[in-house]
Amino acid sequence: MSIHLLGRNTFGDVANTGNLMPIEEAHQLLNEWVPNDRLRLHMKQVAAVMKAWAIEKEQADELTARKWELAGLLHDADWEKYPDDHCRVIVEELERRNIDPEVIHCIASHGPQYFGVEPNNIMDKMIYVFDELSGFIHASALIRPTKYDGMDVKSILKKLKTPSFAAQVNRDDITDAIARINTPLEDIIQFIIDHQKDVQ
Ligand SMILES: [Fe+2]
């Protein structure tokens, strides 16, 4: 990924706190903006893992879980159509739609060294943790005859240490993201496998 600094650290309007779009509308936006099935699946997988983490690990209420899900679902929405302006376009679109500022900040901080926005809260930190790892684990599943069935954490750890495998996945990003949370990499990998394997 190339550098697309957003040049600011505040996003949206606090007056819009709690204002989300219906999940059907988010899917519609994805269908319009992201013709690539595989990229759409990536966002659905990150959304599923984000929502599950919010509910299972952060005891999130329904609205909060929906925020995590929405951020996951839209975080790369502009990547395919606006590769030179990735992140800015979706952030500005969500501001125009008066979406909750925490959701917009979460999307803006999903790659701190690319967009120049530091993850603040646990939602921000987890999207950063899940994004690259989710894609990496899915790439690993695709080359296995049984896909996710029988996939174990060890094989993923081994592939992470093999630079030629899914070489576009930046291992430094994963290391940096994991260093910001209190959960070991192994547990994160298992959580992702469990929660994205059935996403379609
Ligand atoms: Fe992503």
From TrEMBL:
Question: Hydrolase: is it a keyword of this entry?
Answer: yes
Classify the source by domain of life: Bacteria
Key words of the record? Hydrolase
What Gene Ontology molecular-function terms does this entry list? hydrolase activity
Which stretches make up the HD domain? 42-134
Q: What is the designated name of this protein?
A: Hydrolase
Origin species = Niastella yeongjuensis
